[in-house]
Amino acid sequence: MKLSEYEEISDQLCRMNDTEGNIASYLHEMFHRVFSRGQPQITDFLQTAEQRKGMDAIDKFAKSKARYPLLGMQLDDILIFGHTHRPYIDYENNVINTGAWISDMLVPKWFEEEYGQDQACSGWYVEINSNGEYRLVPYGIHQKTKEEMRNSELNKQRRQQQEEQEQEREQNKDNYNDEDENKDNQKENIISKVASQVGDMVKQVKEVGSSAIKNDT
Asked: Which of 32, 35, 67, 138 is the most exposed place for a label (fewest CB within 10 A)?
């Protein structure tokens, strides 16, 4: 899909009301059921945003230096984006994700620590003061409904799974590093052994040569 096509679809989706959106979702689901084979992207889109496989790649790209040439950004620009249901702010990389304007999403841990685990918010926005300082702010804070409580528990489980997967990736990375280090040590030992053997051979050749010279004289 071209960027221009994506922007056109996004613009149309933003202009839809709830009825039109429900119709579009129904047609999309029917298309998926009829043409399910060979459509991994469509299958992924039927998942909630925080469960989609591509979301981690989006966050990695947003925090990477590749965004400057690809998005036409300057080094001191701040990247603000959303629609991923994962609100966060990264001051180190100048990235802000407003998540989505819904209450059912993964919220940062500091939100529950500051407002309480029984509270939810309707969405997030970016506040920038006159000094150019910015922060991510929740709005529409309210007591969680029963449905939001269930969703919150599911989100906690998803976050725990993500943390466990991240720890597993880090552990695998450490294991790979240890294996590489062991391989390097083995190579060094082999090189040292070969060098020692070559040295002994050179020494023997010199001794044989010296003996031959003495015998000739």
From this structure: 35
